[in-house]
Amino acid sequence: MFKLILSVVVLAVVVAAQEEEEINYDFIFEKMETIEGSEQYCEYNYTMEKLSEYNFKLSGNFFTPKELNNDFGIVFTLSRAEVGSEEFEEMMHISKPLCEYMKTIYRMYFYESVKDISNFPHFDECPLPGQKEYWIKEYLFEGEGYKAFTRDGHFKIEFYLTKDGANVAGAVTTMTVKPVEK
């Protein structure tokens, strides 16, 4: 999930890029807040080490107390606001049943990069069993290849587990991308 979030943020920044000159940017993670009731469906903890403006190392655990099947869905929304503005504009919105999400988004953007450093489920594994703990160790996100396409702003990443149209678990992450001061 973390690589997907970072990849989508970087790709969204690419879409928003308008400047021709190459500027170095700093990615600043401000907070990650879970929604009330999330612990009924998933619990997690993680550590993140910032290695440089664009590179991060992540380790953590994710526990599913209950089976998660295709009665659940995944909703992912990425929004951006200009520096100094509180008005976010939606840049990307994904909503899929859990098993379809596993076979498409998770498979394309996440699975290959974590299969050797985690026990995260295979993209064909759905439903996800209850009482299962997943882990990831020292996942390295290298974003330096995106430097030429980066643009500053405030980003909001919303990732929810849904059931019957309601958000039952999830988190909202906010971050700021700004030019590195020389």
From TrEMBL:
Protein name: Uncharacterized protein
Domain of life: Eukaryota
First and last residue of the signal peptide: 1-17
Keyword annotations of the record: Signal
Source species: Culex pipiens pipiens
UniProt xrefs under InterPro entries: DUF1091
Keyword Signal: yes
